[in-house]
Design a protein that fits this description.
This protein is of the alpha/beta class and about 230 residues long. It is built from 7 helices and 7 strands. About 35% of the residues are buried. The model has no long low-confidence stretch (mean pLDDT about 90). It holds the Pfam family cobW. One of its GO terms (biological process) is protein maturation. InterPro entries: CobW/HypB/UreG_nucleotide-bd, Hyd_mat_HypB, P-loop_NTPase.
Amino acid sequence: MNLVTVSGPPSSGKTAVILKTIDSVKKRGLKVGVVKFDCLYTGDDVLYEKAGVKVKKGLSGSLCPDHYFVSNIEEVTQWGLKEGLDLLITESAGLCNRCSPYIKTVTAVCVIDNLSGINTPKKIGPMLKTADIVIITKGDIVSQAEREVFASRVNTVNPGATIMHVNGLTGQGAYELSTLLYDEKTEVKTLVGEKLRFSMPSALCSYCLGETRIGESYQMGNVRKIDMSDKKEK
């Protein structure tokens, strides 16, 4: 079974791109499944079911969705193997714009849209910087010049990635993407012992443990303070 991790900021078009790409994968006779990770709610599992795709969803609740992802990815992998999938796609929440728990041996795809702002590629951390493939969406509602400038900014942040433009509505570019997501020579049977591409943000402070009061005397553990001095950042 092949495994792919898809991440990206909210509303960037991840689910639409995945659905169009699955259409192309299924035409090759491959069996595809999706596991959707989110925080409190998602209706994307219904969209996958309507498309005839095997799907599971995991809601992290009050936990960091990416830590929740890592804590469950082995069980997710075993589910995909049990279902006899050729390709399992995991879709993350992508809420903090910083990370998605990319695994070193698993293809990592970041979806980002042209409308997110010209400086957005610089604001996104390892989620964009360490992706193997970067998909740029919503190119049909900006000019050619804007598309090229945005793609250039993405390339500056991650010059090693394959950058593609995919239309989640029409499916333009989805076939080309599908050819990059499945390799018959690749076989994932377990992720036990594999490593993440980067360490994720950590926090163990009083607010993690349910504190709601504001003030330094209520703050304990891993707390970082903003520099409010007049000193200018270099």
